[in-house]
Each structure stands twice: as C-alpha cells, then as structure tokens.
Amino acid sequence: MQKHIPILLPLFLLCFLGIGLPSAFSVDFIQLEREFGGKGATEGKFSKDIHLAFDRQNIYVSDTENRLIQKLSATGEFLFQIPEAPESPDNILRKPRHLAVDSVGNIYVADVTAHHIPENTDPKVYMFAPCVHKFSPVGERLETYFVDPVDVYPKVVLTAGLILDEEGKAAFAIQPKGYDRALRVALNAENELYVLDAERGRVHKFGTDGEKMTTFGRYGAGDGEFDTDAADIAIDARGNVLIADTGNHRIVRFDAAGKPLNSFGRKGRGNGEFTKPMALATLPTGEILVKDVSQFRRKIGGLPEIVVLSPTLTQLTESTPSQTELADTINNATRSEYGPFAQSPAVAADTAALNRRVRLLEEAEYSRYYAGETDAEDDAELAEELKRKDLRLTLLHNVISRVQKFDSNGQYIGRIVYETDQLSEEKHDQTFLDLDASGHLYLRDDSDFTIAQYSITGFTVKPSHMNGFYSLRAANLQNNYSEDYEDIDLSTDVQDELNQLEFKNLLGWTYSLSERWHLTLLDELTYAEQDERYITPAKVEDSYDFGTQALENAFAANLKFITNPNPYRYKELNLSVGRVDGTSDLTQDALYVELNKQRRVDTGDASSTVIELNWDIWSRTNLWLRYADLNPAETSRNFIRRFYDVSGDLYEVFGSRNQARQFLGELTIKF
After folding, report:
1. What gap in Å lies between CA 371 and CA 383, rounded to an integer?
2. 6: which of 32, 320, 423, 607 is 20 to 30 A away, CA to CA?
3. What are φ and ψ of residue 498, in 5° steps?
4. What is the mean pLDDT of each run of 10 residues along the chain (671 residues)?
5. What is the pLDDT of residue 64?
6. pTM value?
7. Considering only CA atoms, which of 466, 309, 307, 457 is closest in space to residue 398?
8. HSE (CB half, 13 Å, CA atoms) of 291?
C-alpha cells in the first residue's frame, strides 16, 4: 500500500516548498484583515456606487447615491461625514465620485455642479460642468476646480432649461454635452492636484493656490496619448504621473510637468501584460500595483482525466456533477473474480474503452472556464452564448483575479492572485473596489455592500486557498436464504447466510498555483469484507464458510496549464498520473472440520500506473500520449490460489498473473 507514496511526495514538495518553480511562478495570496460598512445612507453605511481614498490613518468614502463623503478610521469606524445633513438644500454634492486626500488632510472629490455665470443676474444663467470640490479636514468647502471654461458664454447656441435657483427665483441652466462625465483625481507630494479627464483625453494640473498650471495628454495610442476610457491616475514616488490606459492595455507615464516618458505593458494575460487595466496604486517604495479586468473562471470539482487503470476502474472525469456520483467514479475493485463478489470476465480494453480525452474546441464550451474581456468583435457573440441556460448551470467555479506589481521603471516584479468562491453564499459576489498605498486590497460585497480589506500573505498553501471534498461511505448488508427443494417434506435443504461490509474513503483536493496552473489530487481508500456460511443440513460435510477481505488505494493527480484562456483560441496542457494498489485475501473452509478439512486460500495483489500527456498544441490540434503499466491488465487481481484436500494437506497451487505495458499516441486535428 505504500507504492503510491513516491508519486505523492514530489507533488506535495512542489506545493509546499516551491522546488523547481521558476521565479516568475511566485504568487502572493491575500488574507482577510477586517470587514466594515454595509447597506445604508449614513454613518459607516453606503449605497452601491462608492469610491475610496486613503491617508496614513483613515479611509474616505464618497457615496454618489447618498450625496456625501464619509471619513472612517483605518479599521472602518465612522468618524464624520460631509455634509452633516445630506438631504439639506445646502448640500453642494450632486454626484460625488472619485476622491483623494492631500498630506494635510484636505479632501478633493470629483463631482458635477451648476456654476453661475457672473454676468447674468436677471435672470441668472447657470452652466453645468464637471468639477472637483476641495474640503478642509473638518469638512468646510475651500474651493471648486473646473476643467472646462465656465465663466464665459459658449460660442454656440445651446438649449437652456428653466430652473429655480437657490433663492427660489427663475433661472436658466445650460447642460453642454459631457457636463456630467466622470473625472479622476490624484495628488503629488507637494499637494498639487492632477485631474484625469479621460473622455476629453486630457490631464489638468492645478497648483496649491487653485490656479491651473498646465494641461497635457491627448487621445490616441502613441507616446503621451491614452484612450477615452482611461480608468485611473496615480502619482509615483518620483512625482511622475501614471495613467491606466484601459483601451490600449498599458500604463502611460508622464513627468510632473506633463512631458511623456514611456509606457509599459501590452495586451495579454501573461506577466507584465494587461487586459484593460482598471486601477493603480503607487507604494512608498516606488513600486506600482496594477489591477486589470482579466479573470479566470475554473470549474470546481475538476478531476484528473486518468484513463482506465484496469477493467475494474472507470475514467475520472471533469464533468462529475456531484459528490455522490463522484464517489462512484471508481468502481469497487476489491471483489475477487469468483464467489458472491464475482464479476464478469474482463474484456481487453480497446481504443474506445481507453476513453481518451478528445478536446472539442467549441467556443461556447470554453466560456464556462473563462470569462473576461475579449476583442470587440467577439463581445456580442460571447455574451449571447453566456445567456444559454445550459452554460449558466455549469458556472459553479472560482473566479481568479490578479494584481500585478512593477518597479518604478515599469519592470514586472510579481503578482497577487485571489479567488472568489462562486459556491459561497456570503462571498460569491465580491467585486474589486480599490488598492491603497500600503498594498491592501479592498473587495466589496455587491449584496450587502460590506467592504473587506485584505493584506498580502505570500506564497503558502493554506486551507483558504484550496477547494476540495471528503466523502466517507459505509455499507453493511446482511442476507439470509433458506431453501427447501422439491421433496415431500418441509425441512430446510440449504441455508445461506451472507454478510457484506464496505468502507469507502474518498478525498478530492484542488489548488490553484496561479491563474493558469492548477493542481488536482484524488485519493480513494476502500476496505471490503464478506462472510458467508453455506449450510446443507442433509449433507453437513459439504457445508463451508467463505470469507474475503480486500484493501485498495487509488490515487490520481493532474497538473493543468492553460496556455491560452481566450475562449475562441482556448488551449491547455494536462499532465496526469494515476496509481492503484490493492490486496485481497480469500479463504473458503469446510464448516465442520471434524468431517472435512478441505479448504482454499487465495491471495491477490494489484499495482497499476498510468501517465498521460494531453496537449492542445494549437487551438484545433490536440496531442494525446499515454503510458500504462497495468498489473494486472485484464483481471482485478493477480492471484495465488492454494487448495487443501479433505485431510487438510496442500495438493495444488495455482498462480495467475497478467501484466501489460502500453504506449499510445494520438494526434487530433479539428477542421
């Protein structure tokens, strides 16, 4: 029973010690520090649309729907809010969104406001425009910054709506195109304000006195350019300006004065590559954290695809829908080939019986393993496929997301990988919210609006990072048979008492080494015994006692690497190992030894190994290789049988051993 240990040991060393892994394989994981917030309208509660900002000691939350800003302690306790009465007519916040805090505690929040054009008094004329409000550390409004001209008449005729001003008098309001577009804000060490106006392809810099110092950037994909869906702005330790250029899948850098420096990253899901970067954080050490929208969806319960080790075993597949059925995927290989546990003679396995995995590269099928952003021309088709009921029902999985780390020059350092358990009632709808300068990750529960703060814990195997199951099954069957043959009396001619006992212990374990590397282990230990008393009162010397005991351990491991997660060009590589070790002991003794000492003793063993490589060389080309050492190859056990005569003397020994070594290869090309 120890023969499978050499297979287990290297895999566990691989996980726990990281031996043999390249440096780029190192992955950081996260650990929950605290949760705070929840659904509400004030004092530590939020609506759905919120943004976070941080200083060394506090957390700031802008709440668009509730029209307020809250200041919380570092542990999430409510401190105060701006304004004290959000429902008051004096509340100037209309749609507070992205915000930042300077070194003295002043708060800057992006918003939209109605600005009175001074030359107009009767009636007043207001211009709606995006802006940034500046508040003191205690909540007093200090200044409002505008990125659009608001104190001059527009040079074109615009439609104006009739409104009531703050004094209750009739006035006109102009709402130019894009008046409520979203802005994002950041501050450098000198408390100078940078405002990202992505929709207009501009970054505006304001001095501490409120005067606009410069404007830089433009729409495009070249040097010093970014797309109109640029998602974030941050200032690094050197004072350089970083833009998350979402549409171009890169990070664009400018110096403090707005001069283009360089960019890093490109479209992709590898190290140093991005799929629509969405959030930035700069650390005091100069390192840069980047969160993109790339996600990997991996179905829970995936098992190694080990083909038949012997005729008594069935294939382990990824499609097993429940633990109960999963427990049945390995047939009871403990029964001997004769007696009450007898099974029909095995037929030599042919190519179909080997049941190798032939990958059908259909786009809809792979949507269940991966969900993320695709090229624009693929979006509509992919979205339509995801609506299909049969696909939705298969999405029982973990969503794997990542945050990449770069040095101050944009060189890739490593990544943080975290998982969202889609089977968890509490955590299945956690979504990314923000990163802070300490490297903490903030996720928000979209059901109850609580915020979870996570710290980075490093590359370790912990129960929280694993998925698995444990199944213990016991069966005890007792059957009594009494038969009266065709004669004129009612006495029993045969009495058969049969007792069967079986314990099956099944452990499945899956672990994501990274976004693409995934390890699955399965181990099943089965113990079975049977006792039968066959009594013939009419001829008691022919009565016998039959007993058998069997122990079997089946182990399987699968290491999967997703070489291309794109659902339209999906490729993966699987390396699988399977091992079965088993023993059986059977005895058949005459029940009344004083009359008959005839008996039979059988001992059996099994030790089979299969190694498989399944590789999607190209998206429509699959290579399958299999090496199998099947021992036995066509029966459940290799047996040695010893027969003893009525006097108890050994008179015959019979040995049965069959073994097969197989190497199979198959290349499949789909047209």
Report:
1. 10
2. 320
3. -125, 125
4. 40 38 52 92 93 94 96 95 91 96 96 85 86 96 92 72 77 86 96 97 95 95 95 96 97 96 92 93 93 72 38 30 29 30 31 31 37 50 46 50 92 85 73 91 92 80 66 89 77 86 85 78 89 86 89 89 76 89 91 88 92 89 91 86 92 91 91 82
5. 96
6. 0.69
7. 466
8. 24
In which residue are the tokens 């605290």 written?
34
Contact 621, 647 (CB under 8 A): no
DSSP state of 316: -
| H/E stretch holding 173 | strand 170-174
Which amino acid, 334?
T
What are the Cα distances from residue 514, in Å, to 28, 235, 404, 586? 9, 29, 12, 48
Beta-carbon-side half-sphere exposure of residue 473 (alpha carbons within 13 Å): 18
The partner residues of 176 in beta bridges, in order of sequence, read none
In this predicted structure, what is the pLDDT of residue 12?
39
| CA separation for the pair 136, 104 (Å, rounded) | 9
Instruction: Give CA separation, 259 vs 68, 290, 468, 549, in Å.
Output: 36, 22, 52, 80
Q: How far apart are CA 587 and CA 644, in angstroms?
A: 11
Helix (H, G, I), strand (E, B) or coil at 1: coil
Structure tokens at 254: 């400018």
- Antiparallel, parallel or unpaired: β 225-226 and 218-219: parallel
Grouping H, G, I as helix, E, B as strand and the rest as coil, residue 546 is: strand
Query: Among residues 215, 200, 287, 217, which one has the least CA distance to residue 253?
Result: 217
pLDDT at 423: 61
Phi, psi for residue 435 in degrees, rounded to 5? -125, 145
Q: Which residues of 190-207 are buried (b: 16+ CB within 10 A; e: fewer)?
A: eebbbbbbbebbbbbbbe
Please name which of 420, 414, 400 lies closest in space to residue 283, comparing C-alpha atoms. 414
Which of 264-284 are b and which e, b meaning 16 or more Cβ less than 10 Å from the residue's Cβ?
A: bbeeebeebbbbbbbbbbbbe
Q: What local confidence, expressed as pLDDT, does residue 440 receive?
A: 92
CA-nearest of 184, 297, 169, 163 to 233 is: 184
Cα(148)–Cα(176) distance, rounded to whole angstroms?
10
What is the rounded distance in angstroms from the CA atom of residue 53 to the CA atom of residue 62? 8
| Residue 390: φ, ψ to 5° | -65, -30
For residues 62 and 72, give the distance between their C-alpha atoms in angstroms, rounded to a whole number. 11
DSSP class of 39: B
For every residue of 551-603, DSSP letters joined together read EEEEEEEEEEEEEE--TTS-EEEEEEEEEEEEEEEEEEEES-TTT---EEEEE
Residue with tokens 């794997």: 400
- Whole-angstrom Cα distance, residue 50 to residue 292? 19
Of 367, 318, 368, nearest to 560 by C-alpha is 318
Which of 191, 195, 167 is CA-nearest to residue 183? Answer: 195
Burial degree of 316 (CB within 10 A; 0-12, 13-18, 19+): buried
Coil, strand or helix at 615: strand
Strand partners, 174: 127, 160
One-letter amino acid identity for 510? Answer: T
